[in-house]
Amino acid sequence: MLLRMSRRLGITLFSIAAVIVITFALTRVLPGDTAAYFAGPAATEDAIQEVRVKLGLDRPKYEQFIRYVQDLARGDFGQSLTTGQPVIRDITARLPASAELTLVGLILSILIAIPLGVLAAVKEGSMIDHVSRVIATAGVSLPVFFTGLLLAYFFYFILGWAPAPLGRLDIIYSAPRHVTGFYLIDSLIARDMDVFWAAAKQLILPAATLAIFSLAPITRMTRASMLAVLSSDFVRTAKASGLSTRKVIITYAFRNALLPVITTLGMVFSFLLGANVLVEKVFAWPGIGSYAVEALIASDFAPVQGFVLVMAVLYVLLNLMIDLLYGVIDPRVRMAA
Amino acid sequence: MKRRDFLKSASALAASTALTAPAVFSPAKAQSRAETLLIVSEGGPNNIDIHGVGTNVPGYEVAWNCYSRLISHEMKKLPNGSEYYDKDKFKPELAEDMKIGDMSATFKLRKDAKFHDGTAITAKDVKWSLDRAVTVGGFPTFQMRAGSLEKPEQFVVVDDHTVRVDFLRKDKMTIPDLAVVVPVVMHSELIKKNATEKDPWGLEYTKQNIAGGGPYNVEKWTPGTEVIFARNEDYKLGPLPKTKRIVWRIVPSAGNRRALLERGDADISYDLPNKDFVELKESGKLSIVSTPFSNGVQYLGMNVSKPPFDNLKVRQAVAYAVPYQKIIDAVLYGLAGKVYGAPANKQTEVAWPQAHKYNTDIAKAKKLMEEAGYKDGFETTLSFDLNFAGVNEPCCVLIQESLALIGIKTTINKVPGANWRTELNKKVMPLYVNVFSGWLDYPEYFFRWCYHGSNSIFNTMNYQSKPMDAFIDGARDAAAINDQASYDKNVKGFVDIAFADIPRIPLFQPYSNVAMQKNVTGYQYWFHRRLDYRNLAKG
């Protein structure tokens, strides 16, 4: 087990190193001249050159790379030119915002998708199976920005039930003291129920948008894997032994069907974390996805590199966690290791 | 823990949270909302120092409101009742008195002026700040140079409360250039304390911190999310600003900015699509102010250094093929000034922008193409900046359609915003749509940037003409010595050449559109086209 873990860690370290090299190379190959962009609207050739020297962009590429790696080793991700802040500070401020939104969205999605998937499998071909198929297909085929705008239009603009899509908090509240960066948790730590409810209300629409989008893979995966398990021998045996349907489905079938579902959850989570740019844009959410996209538009290298690196590390950690979870859910995985 | 204890403590917790949780609409919060003005816009600042490296346009707004300058402009009322800065009338801000001599201007500073931390503003701060503006390089230094403010030696401390600015040469732009966003007065001692050997002007410090004495101060800045401003309660350089607190939130989705305005949650927004502005205007729920960009024109540029656009007849053919009115109606929903189709007998004015005499006349355009030897037309690319795709894209599609009628086949080339400036600088794009507007509202200023042979980045056509240069230089020299007759002659001269030679075709004069709640008053148009917070109030 330990050997396997260390071998795995070695591979991940290698892939992170590769990510560093590739992102560096890719961002330099991109068209667009950072210096010209930041020299401002009235810049001459001289002014652009001045900015270029100031940003160190006049140095040869390998020298820039060495400097970049040295800075990374010191935990310095460089400066973002678009926000004017150190990248590491931007990312630590924005990652929790994305993570909180994604987690709430995912939990919401799980609460609906898993029971729906299980029901669809148990009553295969019934009304509920068709309903679940329609919901899943509709959810995944509507682009997120569209669902987001639609929800904002109905629940904020027409009905006025939801709060204004102004980001994480209404302007009359100030953010709770930073502990985890998750407003829901921080506000509870600060014992400020006002802010807790305000933050929760802001979360509803964007989280629902994400949930609708991620319903499909989770429902379909739950259904497929439940179907496979339900038709297996041990379930037939359990049924034949006269166990209650409830016991058969939940204790025996569902637990065995969970493995692929967990894998899907991991994939969906990491995908959502990076890809909810559009939801962040629609709801003015100060998350990490919109941060990276804005930086990319401005040819701002450092944040893009920082974003990719952080995402790569997150992916690796997430996969590690899922591997460990496998062991908890299915003892056979532990034995095999 | 026993079950009973748990229940007890749980109910105690519930009781305590109930006590600490006031109603969501507490009177105190409602009060603070009434004294807070909420501005929503698409983008926010990346640096709150106008002298910084690569400070973006939203950053100018922060600098404008948080720093003071020696002088500023008076306001005037436009016929439509909106307030507009008066480019000819200056008013004292930090200086209580300005004496303009032959080769210098002397400013007497107010004695009660203070920075936000209470330190008095003295002449050495003024000199240090102006020295900084002309030395740090990049945009600020460039802007200062546009007013012949180039060397630190030009700024002389006479005594604690008197500063003299020596002129390098006679230049009409010198005084106006002291009233733009760049020549701010900074807290020199505070910045010096935070400067390092590598960064003697403390740019790293002022990037994040305001070190000034303007009407507002930044209370909190979360990049990419919001800027919160608090009024400077001790502001002495003018009337106390009307609103206590300004919150500027970044809302990237234009649809949501409109929804926020319509629901009454946001107070002001100024970068909505034209279609939304027109619909909001018609709905009558909000007040909408549209003001033409001062000294600004959106144009169709042609690279005159290469065929086919080196041929005057081809350029004229294009000018007769552009669907001017269609662009104004269908792309801008009427929110634009007309700069085409002047009557044939119209005299050239001493003004910019002004209408040229080209019209949409496809028959004439076809004939010109034939005369130019391009009977069968040619193929080319039409480029635009994706950052302003909302206007540029439909505009280019209309032009593409029209040019097809005279045999010019165009492929539309969408250039990402980050790349646009680089492409402009290369001066190789054959045909493109772009906009330029000058802070200083003088025709010769616009022409120096856009048409002069010194070939600045905005002479995007790579246009070279000796007579044009002579007229532009002539106008500048005449303005410096107040020779009105010669000035008028030169301005008319360069405008005539620009229209006859037509290296770039003015399409329309863009409008700056601001939408606000009916109870918001005090909006003023400034040359920088950003908001001045001082007079904004919620009634």
Please describe the topology of this protein.
The complex is a heterodimer of chains A (337) and B (539).
Chain A: H1 2-29, H2 34-38, H3 45-54, H4 61-73, H5 87-122, H6 127-141, H7 144-158, H8 183-189, H9 193-230, H10 233-240, H11 245-275, H12 277-282, H13 288-297, H14 301-329, H15 331-336
Helix pairs in contact in A: 1-14, 5-6, 5-9, 5-11, 6-9, 7-9, 8-9, 9-11, 10-11, 11-14, 13-14
Chain B: H1 3-20, H2 27-34, E1 36-41, H3 57-66, E2 71-77, E3 83-92, E4 95-100, E5 104-109, H4 123-135, H5 138-145, E6 155-159, E7 162-166, H6 174-177, H7 188-193, H8 203-208, E8 216-222, E9 226-231, E10 245-250, H9 254-262, E11 268-269, H10 274-283, E12 286-292, E13 296-302, H11 312-321, H12 324-331, E14 336-338, H13 362-371, E15 378-385, H14 389-405, E16 408-415, H15 417-426, E17 431-437, H16 443-450, H17 466-480, H18 484-501, E18 504-517, E19 520-521, E20 524-525, E21 537-538
Parallel strand pairs in B: 1-10, 1-11, 3-20, 15-16, 15-17
Antiparallel strand pairs in B: 2-3, 4-5, 5-7, 6-7, 8-9, 9-10, 11-18, 12-18, 13-17, 13-18, 14-18, 19-21
Helix pairs in contact in B: 11-13, 12-14, 16-17, 17-18
